[in-house]
Amino acid sequence: MTEGFRPSHPKISIDDDPGIRSQIEGLTGELSQQQLAKWALIIAKKAMQYVDDNQQRDRRLRLAIDANELWQVNLASVYQVRQASAKVEAMIADSTSSIGAAALECISWAIASAYVDENALRAADQGIKLVNLTQPNDPAAVTAERQWQYQQLAGLAQNINLGLRHML
Question: For residue range 85-124, what is the model confidence (pLDDT) as tens digits?
């Protein structure tokens, strides 16, 4: 944990495991924005299964994810990612279920992590909201999701650190 670290509260109302969330938040402070975007997209891709059936194959979703991935390797601009993110946000209004809308919000925040690193944590929080909707009153499911999120983030951080050591 970094000196002066203070866990923030989720910007949405969710039943959560605050201990694991604070561990996640501590680890996010050690990673670059590109690394956080990569993690957020891992969460978003898991959320894809909950998008409404009529929207799952919508080109705008794939193009938005592609825009973020291209931004991570400097092949797309922040402007292009913002445009793609706005298209996903527009899809939320057309969602036919609260679960589908929550999944699209998770994806939207993950894509937006390209231009604000804090949005990666918002995507993770939205993933927890999705668990709250799909498995109501199930603290074990929430803890399992937060543990999975932490493991994905920690694994990404470890792989990056190993790669940096090989470069030196």
Answer: 999 999 999 999 999 999 999 999 999 999 999 999 999 9
Structure tokens at 15: 């039943």
Amino acid (one-letter) located at 166:
H
- Distance between CA atoms of residues 72 and 146, nearest Å: 24
DSSP 29: T
Contact 110, 54 (CB under 8 A): no
Residues 50 and 53: their CA atoms lie apart, in Å, by 8
Taking the alpha carbons of 157, 130, 106, 69 in that order, is the dihedral positive or negative? positive
Tally of CA atoms within 13 A in the half-sphere of 115 that contains its CB: 16
What distance separates the 2 farthest-apart alpha carbons in the chain?
Answer: 51
Element (H or E) spanning 45, and its range? helix 33-47
pTM, 2 dp: 0.89
Output 33 or 6, whichever has higher pLDDT. Answer: 33
3-state helix, strand, coil in the chain (%, to 5): 70, 0, 30
* Three-class SS of 70-114: HHHCCCCCHHHHHHHHHHHHHHHHHCCCHHHHHHHHHHHHHHHCC
Q: Where are the domains of the chain?
A: 32-167
